[in-house]
Amino acid sequence: MKVVELRARTGIESLVACERPLPQPGPGEILVRIKAATLNYRDLAIARGSYGSFALPIVPLSDACGEVSALGEGVARFAVGDAVCPLYVMDWMSGPPQADVVARRLGGPQDGVLAQYVCVPARSAVRAPRHMSALEAATLPIAGVTAWQALFVQGRVTPGDVVVVQGTGGVSMFALQLARAAGASVIATSASQDKAQRARALGAREVIDYRAHPDWQRRVMELTDGRGADHVIDVVGGANVARSIGAVRIGGTVSLIGFLDDTRGVIDLPEAFRRVVTLNCISVGSRAAFEALIAATEASELRPVVGRVFGFDEVHAAYEHLAAGAHFGKVAIAFE
Amino acid sequence: MKVVELRARTGIESLVACERPLPQPGPGEILVRIKAATLNYRDLAIARGSYGSFALPIVPLSDACGEVSALGEGVARFAVGDAVCPLYVMDWMSGPPQADVVARRLGGPQDGVLAQYVCVPARSAVRAPRHMSALEAATLPIAGVTAWQALFVQGRVTPGDVVVVQGTGGVSMFALQLARAAGASVIATSASQDKAQRARALGAREVIDYRAHPDWQRRVMELTDGRGADHVIDVVGGANVARSIGAVRIGGTVSLIGFLDDTRGVIDLPEAFRRVVTLNCISVGSRAAFEALIAATEASELRPVVGRVFGFDEVHAAYEHLAAGAHFGKVAIAFE
Amino acid sequence: MKVVELRARTGIESLVACERPLPQPGPGEILVRIKAATLNYRDLAIARGSYGSFALPIVPLSDACGEVSALGEGVARFAVGDAVCPLYVMDWMSGPPQADVVARRLGGPQDGVLAQYVCVPARSAVRAPRHMSALEAATLPIAGVTAWQALFVQGRVTPGDVVVVQGTGGVSMFALQLARAAGASVIATSASQDKAQRARALGAREVIDYRAHPDWQRRVMELTDGRGADHVIDVVGGANVARSIGAVRIGGTVSLIGFLDDTRGVIDLPEAFRRVVTLNCISVGSRAAFEALIAATEASELRPVVGRVFGFDEVHAAYEHLAAGAHFGKVAIAFE
Amino acid sequence: MKVVELRARTGIESLVACERPLPQPGPGEILVRIKAATLNYRDLAIARGSYGSFALPIVPLSDACGEVSALGEGVARFAVGDAVCPLYVMDWMSGPPQADVVARRLGGPQDGVLAQYVCVPARSAVRAPRHMSALEAATLPIAGVTAWQALFVQGRVTPGDVVVVQGTGGVSMFALQLARAAGASVIATSASQDKAQRARALGAREVIDYRAHPDWQRRVMELTDGRGADHVIDVVGGANVARSIGAVRIGGTVSLIGFLDDTRGVIDLPEAFRRVVTLNCISVGSRAAFEALIAATEASELRPVVGRVFGFDEVHAAYEHLAAGAHFGKVAIAFE
């Protein structure tokens, strides 16, 4: 079968297409024929050597959707032909994270999904939403689950809440759509008029141009009559964390999810105390969170935002498109 | 000014219209000109002598909306002309209930809102939703807040959840609308085809005829592929509590809210353990819960279900309409 | 190896000692040489045919402590010689219960621990507390974890809380000791002066004689200056549930754990609403809860209450001792 | 009566003793004869002009204990002679903080407790613990409540948890004692051998010398077998926040409480994500939290650590003692 291997940590050119033998599902495992995969910043950082130190070569990518093509001994959870998504954090079934369940991860240290077939334990996969294409479902395992975890597991967004999302990447667009599905109002930030328009089309009540308003948190305070947002999803890091705190109400929540700008996050402590903020660091979620997300997408017929789609032989171009930062929604790879 | 007094606990005929002097707002108080009020079963039970033992006479009713017509000394929270709803539990500002904040209640032991004017502490009132009429806003203080408390404060409904509501009374219809606003699916129960039709119009996915299916919990299991609902709102009591428990999933929640059938609730313990159910007894909510409810109704433009509307001189007829049990949504009294 | 089988559901005499071949640990499994086991009411109910409908014969008992005597392929979690307790609910690792993790249970439907050796998945066992004997550790899997789950996972007992425990069975004595370790005050109930004395020795502040005070909840109200307890652990069921509700403060919690008197639980709904009670149905807990319990017992050097100890060839007598209800703490079986 | 006024923001010398007329309790108020007060860093920062911008002159200090000497109209909550502590955040009764309840604070913007008599609303005071002297009870309103809020309201410490406290100031010593009362193990940090000794005497399992181990978080990892602490109380700010995050387990909690070093807090985001940390900003707590704290201190007979005690005419010396940072426990002022 065809796979792509990451053979060095020197950049996108370290990704090499090659052949590997078709794997066989062991007891309790399923063999999945991959139909679509999507990229995350993690994948780019691993290729560039700025994240992780896994043994190489490794098959990259964590997010995919495929079809069950064979069952290992004793598997009752799925049938051949089922559309499934493998779990990124393979052993995290439910509840809060614990040391012994967060170690095994698809796309590093475990081999990932940029392969025609992968074997995973049946318990490390979920049924894909009925109303989604394979490309759409392939956006869920990291970006969708992370947004869900932030809003509804570690956070507690309810109807009428005001939620702030930053930029138009995968997690932010899921957070926008899921917050809307939960009856919340959403304020987005974007420096692009085109992306602002698309965020509005997805339900954002307001979009703040963060170039025109570098202290965008002040606009959030104005837009909320001086009260502040209930929940801010921070994907930027650095000094932006202090801005996110400056945008929430007393007793509000900031979910820390990314570090596009800076791996350090900076807090203005007196301001944080004045607002009695809770800062939740988010790192994906459990299978139970994934299943709740799927139920939510089915109930609201939510369709994820798939950005540009590349072919299996266009992997380098896909990575470069993500690296350029011009995408809206998820960058995807279709397998056929 | 015109008021109605309950002068005995012998039934609806104990309600007597009379005159009282116009009250003056003391320091920190507001004078509210009542424009609309709504009835709850509590009011009927008090009139019939089956609930409470308050000193008589008392002005009945807890739920109203009116206009601020005068401010006591030091009041900055409201301005004259503001549309407001007084709190039913006057001193419960936020957080879980505590003994010293749940004692004072409008409509017993404190004088209620069936009067042209009432004085309440400014902190014991909230601004009415901008998009609602006085009649609509008058449905909120008990029925709306109780549904909010069950679903989002003591419960934790998220998008994609399945919520079961019983009958078509005030709390149940609020629970239906609020669960829908939060992205949940709703299964309702009703023995009337007409009411079933109206529940569907409000967004119920399914309506179970509990006369045709006395063990309606089995239908819920079928409709959820054997999994069970995430949350059941029980307003019936008696043996129905065991049915509600039989309708939830493992780890699900039943909110106990009423006792239309029986003041006793019966649990089948082995079944309850098997499902690891949480049973939340609900008794309205705090001012913070009320304010969150208002934000939610504004964000989703939710309009409460006002049933039949009576005039101020038709109070006996309004109580009798509630007693007959044929209403859909809240029974209301318009003051002018 | 020697095992005991339950061959019918006609009572204690259906338990028959026999031989089975020594099991071999498969991949990911451990072989445990059992050193001690303890009994739960569940075991008695299964033998009498009033609980479950498992395929027979079955090896009974759920709670044990033993020594790892061999490792299956790939096991890194334990070493040979480690003292371990198997999990009763074998697949419940952490978080709230879910349908697919609560099915497999030791002692029915899965074969239990009344055998010289048992094989379990390595992930379905925990290291025994360092300071406990095998007999003491064998009390933990159901009774200890259940008390932990009630007080600290589904409940939230903090220092200064008042906790009520009923009778002197295994769960109640763990609840007493764990509540004391958490800085709470404990009120116990017992009809035996001797047991009352022993409950006081374990730290109970007061013991109410429920024969002298059938409405023992009134004594709790007196002992708490009319405020009520923060948390009641109900192991009795029936009308006692209403008494438990009558013993808690406004906003308090009742954990429903057993049904010694009656499989039905009865609630006085108006009283339950007045107190805004939360009723948590408890059914053991996850491996994460078990590990937290173990850390707690080690930090406080808590030693479980082992009642009478029987030999492996005295199984019938052990069951009869439990059936007689005269025990204090757990009824145990020592294997050598 | 004698009071001290802060008449400028230029330092400790801006504190001036003078006379004011004895206040009279209005409706719902109590007159309290102050017997003891304690200092917080907030008081020092206000005197130095680095915190707040309140109208001057102001009576400083937030924390006191006194005796009710007169009751305003309608007060039933207390009797003359009761020992009470006024609330620092006067209107925060229970639940999470909200904008309209956190504005009024004793010691700025409201006049504080460095006066022979103060009037406060009866609902803005609590009964002092029965077993404490006035000096001891005067340590509770900020330092005690803050530690309680961190450990048991926004945090959730249970028996067997490992809690890290930093230094030997008021909040840290309360956190140490309360964590011990809850059955947790405590690791403290201190650069003074003498203070380390006293922390051990209060129950600390280990004390890390942060001068010898600037990366003290590594010692915490060693002391917890590589697992990390469950909860860290950070009172230092700056780069220490990253160290606190480096000291917790996966899924652990850091309470941010102070900024002795730096008003900015710095987070290493990849590390924070790896540990899925929750960061709770703490700013005192509600009256309900205060009452729970009092119940806990009574149940465990916890006695606060009172450091050096100054007379009413030694206020400047008391502030200078706090400024020198050599104290252990709370710096106090006795009024007679």
What does this entry look like structurally?
4 copies of one chain form a homotetramer. Chain A is an alpha/beta fold. Chain A contains 10 helices and 17 strands. Helix content of chain A is 28%, strand content 28%. In chain A, the strands form 4 sheets. In chain A, strands 3, 4, 5, 6, 7, 16 and 17 form a 7-stranded mixed sheet that branches. Chain A is globular and about 60 Å long. The relative contact order of chain A is 0.15. The model of chain A has no long low-confidence stretch (mean pLDDT 96). At the A-D interface, β13, β14, α8 and β15 of A face β13, β14, α8 and β15 of D.
Q: Mind telling me the C-alpha Rg of chain A?
A: 20 Å
Order of helices and strands of chain A: EEEHEEEEHHEHEHEHEEHEEHEHEHE
Report mean pLDDT of chain A, rounded to a whole number. Answer: 96
The total of helices of chain A stands at 10
State the secondary-structure class of chain A.
alpha/beta
Euclidean distance between termini CA atoms of chain A: 13 Å
Shape of chain A: globular
Helical amount among residues of chain A, as a percent range?
25-40%
Query: Count of DSSP E strands of chain A?
Result: 17
The low-confidence parts of chain A are none
Query: Sheet bearing the most strands of chain A, described?
Result: 7 strands, mixed
Largest interface: A-D, 37 and 37 residues
